[in-house]
């Protein structure tokens, strides 16, 4: 067997390749840690002020020990395709049922502005903060704007959030007559989420990781505003829109 001795130049090449491989490995590991961090965006674009505040607010409101959880924040930096378009979200269609047991179609919501969140009732993380944000919007609206606005919570948990569960949730959270908790089948729910740019996925422990967005639909069902709804900086523009477009 012959042993080949490396020349100085080939040794330098091998060293350069090794260093490059190490750097690439470190970079991939860094990106992976960033992607799974709780309440951090999956985009490499710089965060806006209200997004950073929203993430901080969401973390400060979490209760209990979530150190072993991977509750990803899926908020997108890219606006929903329907935002600013002359397209009615109500074209998603499908049959829906509200927490009072009434069956309806989305276009039945035509005629009033809609404040829409996609979440689920058993969520213990950012969902309660989103509902609190919706209630703050309701509180800070003018009487005229409030009379022309409804609040919709569309569940992502199509199996566990039955009519009874949603109705109990509405009573427990003192949600008024202008609130609708609604459910549909998985395919219709996914279609609505895609249209609103709401990302969600089911975790092994039963949680649902999802975007923390509050969407505003005008009286024709067009998406006219959307913000991360876990901080005051996110809901203030929504309140301003509703108070000036009633």
Supply database-style keywords:
7-stranded mixed β-sheet, alpha+beta, two-stranded antiparallel sheet, 7 helices, single chain, 246 residues
Description:
The protein is α+β, with helices and mostly antiparallel strands and 246 residues long. Helix content is 38%, strand content 17%. It is built from seven helices and nine strands, in the order H-H-E-E-E-H-H-E-H-E-H-E-E-E-E-H. A seven-stranded mixed beta sheet has the order 2-1-5-4-3-8-9. Helix 3 runs parallel beside helix 7 (232-244). The relative contact order is 0.18.
Distance between the termini: 87 Å
Number of helices: 7
Report the mean per-residue pLDDT as an integer. 77
Low-confidence stretches: 1-72
Summarize it.
With 246 residues, this protein is α+β, with helices and mostly antiparallel strands. The chain has a 7-stranded mixed β-sheet with strand order 2-1-5-4-3-8-9. Strands 6-7 form a two-stranded antiparallel sheet.
């Amino acid at each position: 067997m012959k042993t080949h001795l490396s020349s100085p130049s080939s040794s330098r090449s091998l060293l350069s390749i090794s260093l490059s491989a190490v750097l690439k490995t470190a970079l991939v590991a860094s990106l992976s840690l960033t992607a799974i961090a709780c309440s951090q965006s999956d985009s490499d674009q710089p965060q806006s002020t209200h997004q950073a505040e929203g993430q901080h607010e969401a973390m400060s409101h979490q209760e209990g020990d979530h150190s072993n959880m991977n509750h990803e924040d899926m908020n997108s930096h890219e606006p929903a395709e329907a935002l600013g378009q002359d397209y009615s979200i109500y074209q998603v269609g499908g049959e829906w049922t509200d927490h009072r047991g009434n069956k309806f179609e989305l276009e039945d919501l035509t005629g009033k502005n809609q404040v829409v969140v996609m979440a689920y009732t058993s969520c213990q993380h950012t969902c309660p903060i989103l509902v609190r944000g919706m209630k703050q919007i309701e509180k800070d609206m003018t009487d005229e704007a409030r009379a022309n606005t409804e609040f919709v919570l569309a569940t992502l948990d199509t199996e566990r959030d039955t009519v009874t569960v949603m109705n109990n949730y509405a009573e427990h959270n003192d949600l008024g007559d202008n609130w609708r908790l609604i459910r549909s089948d998985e395919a219709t729910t996914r279609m609505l989420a895609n249209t609103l740019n709401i990302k969600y996925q089911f975790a092994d422990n039963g949680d649902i990781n999802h975007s923390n967005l509050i969407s505003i639909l005008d009286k024709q069902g067009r998406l006219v505003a959307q913000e991360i709804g876990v901080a005051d900086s996110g809901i203030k523009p929504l309140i301003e829109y509703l108070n000036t477009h009633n």
